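INPUT
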Amino acid sequence: MAFWNVDTLQLQEFRPGIMSKAAIGDDLIMVCMEIAAGKEDTGHEHAFDQCGLVIAGTIEMFVGEERKTLTVHESYFIPAGLRHGWKTFDSPVKLLDISLSSKVG
Amino acid sequence: MAFWNVDTLQLQEFRPGIMSKAAIGDDLIMVCMEIAAGKEDTGHEHAFDQCGLVIAGTIEMFVGEERKTLTVHESYFIPAGLRHGWKTFDSPVKLLDISLSSKVG
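OUTPUT
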């Protein structure tokens, strides 16, 4: 299935508080995910780039020294190796997130 | 700059009828692009995955045997090697498009 509507796409529980659906190719993984309110990733890094866009809701992210509260149609680009993290507030956030598939990354 | 607002981001002419801005990492290239009305790519293929999301406007795309008119918040995933193309109608379309950076792809 080449095409999704990310507003109406059916997601499944990936881990507690994160619902997702993934398209996985030879190189890329594209994930539509909804993160519940009140969740946090205090920071991690990995040896590949990651990027994405907020579809709905609000999320605070940091990428290296930059920190920003992102709302709808704000994008992020996380260069390989740079520490990054996020937290949600009092409502869920929906993202379209892209990184390297496990076949590569 | 880790964060963009894709609704207000300043784009520059990439080629006639296509305005764009790119974030380029070791692995990924993320491009915000606006394609003018009445443009078409009748089809091509490449040996890496490509994906993205419609931010505003309408575009017809085909990926292999699937063909769809995409509007805001509809995404596409083009597996490596699969023929794909697109055309715009009577107004521009804005996309956030992700593929492999030239450092990899």
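end of record. Residues 12-100 of chain B form a domain with the Jelly Rolls fold (CATH 2.60.120.10).
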